[in-house]
Amino acid sequence: MRTRTLRLEPVVFQTFNAIVMIALAVITLYPFLNTLAVSFNPGNDTLRGGIYLWPRVWTDQNYRAVFIGGTIYHAFWVSVARTLIATVLSLFLTSMLAYTVSRKEYVFRKPVTIIIVMTMYFNAGLIPSYFLIKDLHLLNSFMVYIVPGLISAFNMIVIRTYIQTLPDGLIESAKVDGAGDFRTFFSIIMPLCQPVLATVALFVAVGQWNSWFDTFLYASSKQNLSTLQYELMKLLSSASFSNSNPAVVNGNNATAALNMVTPISIRAAITIVASVPILVVYPFLQKYFVHGMQLGSVKE
Fold it and tell me: Which Gene3D superfamilies match (predicted)?
């Protein structure tokens, strides 16, 4: 009898575990699937409620309202450009700084680390930051998307901690062979840091892709510098205003399209449009993300 009980325990555990995992998967995926269903459902029909995982009436009018203005395509490429350039430069500079402060022979590594960490706790505020950007002549410039976020204190600490887990013998043997700091960094440190670099790359890329407030503050007067998130934010505001003031017409096709949707439906379409690029990239970085966070955040 006891043997039969012992044999049943793995089956019961696996069944219970499967049920719990399926329930968690449903809870996790439901908000996204519901948003996807709402985005393909007519806006006026969505107001009736009852949209869960499947549209009641299929339509693409919400997406046509998003893409009807020609500015969305240019803004998309601006967002792609700022994300790629900022991610590459931030990875390169942050990893170099992390490698420098990880070296025990660098006498100023502790003061430099303290100064960098202090920036995580103290911030001058929005107005001083704006005047700093203005004094640097970065207003209405594409570089305003790149320069302020080149170095991240948190990302530097993650990369530095990961580098400190690497055997010191690798660096010492490279120096014995005559390699300098740059050769050691590019030939040994960078290849071994792929997991943590992929993790930091995902952090930076998601932050750059989702950013719109810097466009609003520093580049709103230049249409050619408008980003996808900023255009989507303006579109959502226009949809809310058009539905609350149907008599207001600004004379373009976008207004007519917005009058056919509701803020809920246009918000759902905007969410899907903004999240698809990150969802496409994330599966390729997922294994590095988990591995990099595990090794880059804990030091034995």
Answer: MetI-like
- The CATH number linked to 158 is 1.10.3720.10
| Token reading at 59 | 């339509």
Residue 85, pLDDT above cutoff 60: yes
| Structure-block tokens of residue 157 | 């600490």
Residue 19 is assigned to a structural domain of this protein: no
The set of long-range contacts for 43-52, using a CB threshold of 8 Å and a minimum separation of 24, is: 43/260, 43/261, 43/262, 43/264, 43/265, 43/266, 44/262, 46/262, 46/264, 46/265, 47/262, 47/264
Residue 39 near residue 265 (C-beta atoms within 8 A): yes
CB contact at 8 A, 43 and 266: yes
Task: Quote the pTM value.
Answer: 0.76
The confidence score (pLDDT) of residue 289 equals 60
* Complete DSSP assignment for 5-39: HHHHHHHHHHHHHHHHHHHHHHHHHHHHHHHHHHH
Q: Dihedral angle at the C-alpha atoms of 13, 19, 20, 25, nearest 10 degrees?
A: 140
296 has a pLDDT exceeding 50: no
Quote the pLDDT of residue 123.
79
Q: Which of 95, 88, 290, 120 is nearest to 208 (CA)?
A: 88
Specify if 40 maps to a domain. no
Q: Domain of 110?
A: 62-300
Q: What's the mean per-residue pLDDT of the chain?
A: 81
